[in-house]
Amino acid sequence: MLLPAYRPLLRHTPTQRTITVWPSDAVPALQDCFQRTDWQIFREAAVREGEVDLEDYTSAVLGYISKCTEDVTSTRTVTEYPNQKPWLNAEVRSLLKARDAAFRSGDRLALRAARRQLTAGVKRAKAAYAQRIQGHFTSNDPRREEPLSVTTAEVRRTLQRINPRKAAGPDNISGRVLKGCAYQLTEVLTDIFNTSLQQAVVPTCLKTAIIIPIPKTSTVSGLNDYRPVALTPIVMKCFARDWSWPTSRTASTSTVDPHQYAYRKNRSTEDAISSVVHTALSHLENKDSYVRLLFVDFTSAFQHSHTADPGPETHNTWTEPQPCVTGSWTF
User: Fold this and answer.
1) Rounded to whole angstroms, what are the CA distances from 296 to 148, 274, 322, 324, 325?
2) Are residues 175 and 314 in the same domain?
3) Among 42, 182, 213, 232, which is most exposed with the fewest C-beta within 10 angstroms?
4) Looking at the record's lineage, which domain of life comes first (predicted)?
């Protein structure tokens, strides 16, 4: 009888995060620096017995770009709150500070004007965020002739389409550098990509990734409540985007299952759900019909287990894949 009739809200503590501060003259300084750089020196220094050492060549170029970026930028620690909206930008933050200042001053007219400006700023921020999200769903026509090698025009176009807000990989080269200096970095990146295609080797520095555990729920009780997200170098993403079409077109569209939604362009889990719901509802329109759905979860099929032998040594073994049936529904 003494238990409260409601569950109190969980209090989430704010988190600290380090961000990179870009001055107004950072991108022009990088453009001027990369424009004056003789990229041929990096290639000549990586030649071993008449052949280019792709590992040294790529590592030297990416390290030079990262060092130049660190010279023109700085870092700052910011506080993030759990209820922070995704559309909240610098303009809305400044309007919030202006409204609070007007409220503390006691001027009603200034407070009323600050509130109007804040409302308009929030609408603009939400519209810009919605437009940015809708831009991710624009489809491109994949029917075009693919060259045997990557051209400078394709690399430049890929660099200009980079989202500057994406997190950088282990090389610490942000998308803002690659997009802002697309014209200055096109030649050297095209040379690296073509050398990789000719040697059929991907540099190790482009294959490394940082695994970031992201909580699936607000309250974490075990390791299974985390979702691993791999942060790969943005340069590798550009490289994969340039040569992915010739690779994907080796398989004819007639041999691909039309109900396959994974690893296909412009397909997602929402398309799979819509297809299942549409098929089920269309079938249920018939008289005396029913639908039975079987869901199979392979999440725990390949878990890594540790077993101990009777001897002194302990080694790791892989469990046998055992799919888990999570539900069977009948309508």
Assistant:
1) 41, 18, 10, 6, 5
2) no
3) 213
4) Eukaryota
